[in-house]
Amino acid sequence: MVYSLPEEVLEHVFSFITLDKDRNAVSLVCKSWYEIERWCRRRIFVGNCYAVSPSIMTRRFPEVRSVELKGKPHFADFNLVPEGWGGFACPWISEMSRAYPWLEEIRLKRMVVTDESLELISTSFKNFKVLVLSSCEGFSTDGLAAIAANCRNLRKLDLRESEVMDLSGHWLSHFPNTCTSLESLNIACLGSEVSFSALERLVGRSPNLKILRLNRAVPLEKLSTLLCRAPQLVELGTGAYSSGIRSDVYSSLSKAFLGCKELKGLSGFWDVDPSYLLAFYSVCSRLTSLNLSYATIRSPDITKVISQCPNLQRLWVLDHVEDSGLNAVALSCKDLRELRVFPSDPYIADANVTLTEQGLVSVSEGCPKLQSVLYFCRQMSNSALITIARNRPNLICFRLCVIEPRAPDYLTLEPLDVGFGAIVEHCKELRRLSLSGLLTDRVFEYIGRHAKRLEMLSIAFAGNSDLGLHHVLSGCDGLRKLEIRDCPFGDKALLANVAKLETMRSLWMSSCAVSYGACKFLSQKMPMLNVEVIDENGSLDSRFDSCPVEKLYIYRTVAGPRSDMPGYIRTIDRDRVNTIS
Amino acid sequence: MDLNYKATELRLGLPGTDDLPATMKSKKRSSPEMCPDESRSIPPAKSQVVGWPPVRCYRKNALQGKKMEVGSYVKVSMDGAPYLRKVDLRVYKSYGELMKGLEEMFKCIIGLYNEKELGYNGSMHAPTYEDKEGDWMLVGDVPWDMFLTSCKRLRIMKANEAKGLAI
Which residues form the PB1 domain (chain B) (predicted)? Predict the structure, then answer.
């Protein structure tokens, strides 16, 4: 006798299941659960926009309210992915405008978005609430004007680090007077000045505004006006943070900050004048997030601020913080979870800044909750890495960039294999790792052996042979994203781990030693993979099998080869491979 | 004396743009000379390695932009005016905007640079600037970016005094 719960009950139960992983598991139980689940799934996350097609998504999930898509590979952030590669949002937005009239949220990362698409968004979805464009490009302030003008219930507009064609600041004035729903506005990436009076009025009529990130063009003198209109702010990104020495500006600013009782996060601080830093003194004790990574202020000033912030959980800062500043962090910020230290002058050999491996060691000692690290420095040692690993076995994300490629342990001149080995051995929950410095195949042996939870690995200028790559592909059970540049990895490791590639989201290899012939073979053998060869210099048609490919991007997909590639990219056509001997 | 060779040297690229190492130019494609064999044996010099160190363009531009913008306030004098003013050249994106700004500030009419006649014909005033070498130049001859980097102060002259300046 089969007993089954009525659909409504199942649907209600499923509504408590929010993680994609769990939703996917639910849909595999049986056909009826698959059916019920697909009708009630409200959020979709597509980590690679070419892994699936828009119509496949809308066909399976008809009632979606929120879609998140990612386009270009991560290395696009560092100019390694050429112009015109792809990641076009247009087909997705067109399809969603047709299929999801009740769509409320769109989040795009590293995609190319046009003004037409933005206009389509603004007119297609009556209840549109959230637009996040993270590291996107291809649109202008005209598109933003359409969003402002037409989205009556807009709650969040976040342009996180996108490249916007800044035609004018007028777009902001397109928010109608009736728009009072705004909760989050991030325009930090925009160059030109927006109309301040329009901004002030918008802020004034948005009682739910919690996050406001201004752009550099908003002068410091005007900041207090905005803060007085929005004392309920939780996160603030300032504009330019200097104004000549004017005591009236300072006093109105500190008064305004005093009024912001909910403020927990600060960012911005372009062009910082240190004499204004302590205007937000009253907020420091409550701060959980502080981004000073655009503030070129010196260590003593940074230290003064940081020592006032005992509740800091996230700190982003330039290497001007120096070891002394990080010692202060270790002493004062016992709740720190995430530390990012960026280089102020990445291209000169000697930065005249005393930031060494010691700073990171101190923080690892003093901050018991430290989980996530991004650290640029000019010297590193195995002993420091081992100490860090022992101090912080709870690390989840460890990204270290020793600026000089292939730099050895500066004390012993040995490779940093043992140091990184200690990291993966002790930090059993490590999910993301970026390597740098002088590294041999040995480090990959350690990684393959210990980094069982690793999901994303970034490798540059490392390894000796295919054995290195083989260790990673055969050992890292949870690997989803692998990106490699300038390593001597060739065909052998790839061809020995062909099945592994289908369990991963994507593999990027540039300036390595993979041959065209190996790419063809992979493509032939694995129909569920797109094997894309990028070559900007030569003709892809006249390649010999033994030629190394410039750049290679392999990803699993159910959508087949894509049709929007520029001429210098080719998906190895399986059918052609079979007929050409 | 700073002869400002950089501004006059022959090279490909717009005058007035600074020479930046290859890695700082956004969207640049990787060098054709870099093939896997070479990258294994010869570590490339830092300035030639695309995308290394891995700092996002957004961040690079933000920090760079900051450096270029320090100290762009210049004094502006107008013949006959009792005191000088200061303008932040950063605020303007073109000569047209600058002229408008100056006109508003001094309540005068300068007009626009006439490209055919290379001057401000018919105007009562001629805008001039002192460049890095200490010479007084007519505003408008050189591209805007180049002007930004070389202008040290501005002077709005009466037209009848500006005789030797190609008016």
Answer: 71-161
